[in-house]
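Q: Give me the 3D complex with fe (ii) ion.
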Amino acid sequence: MLRPATRPALVATRQVRQCAARFFSSPVSPDTSSSHVHSPSTTPETNPAPPPPNSRSSTSSSKGKKPLTAEQRAFLSSALRVNQAGELAATLIYTGQTPPLVTRDPSLRPLMKHMYDQEAAHLRTFNDLIYRHRVRPTALYPLWSVMATGLGWGTAMLGKEAAMACTEAVETEIGGHYNAQIRKLLEMVSEWEAEGYEVGAEFRHLINTLRRIRDEELEHLDHAVEHDAQKAEPHWLLTGVIRAGCRGAIWVSERV
Ligand SMILES: [Fe+2]
Ligand SMILES: [Fe+2]
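A: Here is the predicted complex, encoded as structure tokens.
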């Protein structure tokens, strides 16, 4: 059952962005996805994402669009919920990491800002989507916020290598997580096309959005490895614990 996004969660996200902006040399981009921008009356049917301008369905069918099944609606709701939670955590990890890292090595400031800015944009994307489609955000916002900030700050205090190992571990899990979602959505597309239904432009746009974000997460993974993530000691333990924590957080956020 889809429910309206709760105002406290959106307020919390706004506060996070305001807090994060103070740590970087320039503020994050203005939030253009605030809740008041969109009509709350939109409900998810077969189009869970906003369409790009002038986009059109690539299929032409007299059957039109097939309504989502209850299972598909539940999948999309949990996907948007967990993605928003994950992107919130990502912004907080970089927010926690940046002051200790940049204080010791100012040359890391552009990289940290670049990765943070991309995570902030991902978070705006999913804030927009969960509000537009009236998906309840995770109830564990406060818990994830504390844990992500602590993880970022703690690994940065251990050193650059540990901080980068954290990014390597997180992005490995998140890259796989987005890939699994993309595969599921492509399966839905294949089924609809096989049955002669249209696939809406918004649905295709959602898949392309997930692909772009997945690619940016994997870019972060590459940056981390290039910046000595695998020299962290003990690398296997650090990355193993963080990856297990990510999997647990994903599992919980999909449901709670
Ligand atoms: Fe992200
Ligand atoms: Fe990332």
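A quick observation: The pocket of fe (ii) ion (ligand 1) is lined by residues 87, 90, 119, 122, 213, 217 (CB under 6 Å).
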